[in-house]
Amino acid sequence: MYSFQETVPNQEVWTRIEDAYDSTCFQTRKWCIYLDRIGYHPYIVEVSQEDDIIAYFIGTKIGHGISAVCAPMDGVGTYTQGLSSMRQLSEDERITIYQDLSKWLFSTHRALFLQVDDWQLSRTFSEWIPNEQFHQVTLDEKGIPYTVRPTLYVPVNTSEEEMWAGLHYKSCKYSINKAHKHGLYVREITRFEDIADFTDIHYKQLVEVCARKGTHPKPSQHRNRMQALCESLFPDRVIMLEVIGKDENGKEQIMSSGIYCIDKGECSYWTGASYQRYQKYCPNELMVWEAMRLANQRMGGVMNFCGMHSYKLKFGTVYAYVPRLIFTKYTWLRKAKIYAQRIYFFFRNSMVNVTLRVKHNLQENK
User: Fold this and answer.
1) CA diameter of the chain
2) pTM (2 decimals)?
3) Angle, alpha carbons 121-6-67 (nearest 5°)
4) pLDDT tens digit string along 29-51?
């Protein structure tokens, strides 16, 4: 029913991809430039039906012996990928295309594993549900294995007054007003030459945040990768914000900062952090509110918080669950991937614990 062909898009094709109704920031030329800069090569496939190109599949291909196509690849900060469609596709069509794509990849020895997180297959709920209770009926009916990635998002396609009214908790409005009262203001990074300094400060804030939790920044949050991302998406597909205010000594400090990836219809809260000693001034709430305002002015749609955290509930968010479709040529590959992830996180957490113990012992011996 569908045919597939690997392609390297020219500018005309990229324009078609980025104009697609279901394209996101993570399926753009600039995002693929970022992936290439950090060593992950984009994998793009034409999808045709009766000789007409109806969609492009955007993902990443890795491996040589046991090769995999991932949309998205884990650990690089990509939230969702998959199809950018030239016409409206039904949910059933999308899933059938992914099924046929997996068969083509396997039969032509291009890959042994395919995973896809497609925002168009997501479901929204007014209340939180455990992951194990989530069911995507269309996938269940087709017998396709999947896991689920929960997230929170808030509509930013209304007036500023309506967005303000939608902030759920009084503490959120109180915090924003408190930040203003203390003279805090938000600065957007608009010069390319300022990106390196911005990502340097932001990384230091992330390190402090993670240290308080007993963890390290994610691979995608390493300083060089964040700089590569901001430089690749600059100037029109990224919002870089700093919240500035005066400390107890009257000296201006960068109290918090954040990175937001934008495209038509969606603004993704990629990362945010602040120094603990300045949290009493409430810089984080002010920063997120300003990001919502900018997203509203520039593209509308929704702000995707790219994950679940109770802190994010105060911004009037809605629960969304994105299924991760998993196709493997051999059944054992799916189990092998699960075990590999467990081993990775076991050693990562072990290294974090060792680092924390060493730091604790050094402090005691001073």
Assistant:
1) 74
2) 0.89
3) 75
4) 999 999 999 999 899 999 999 98
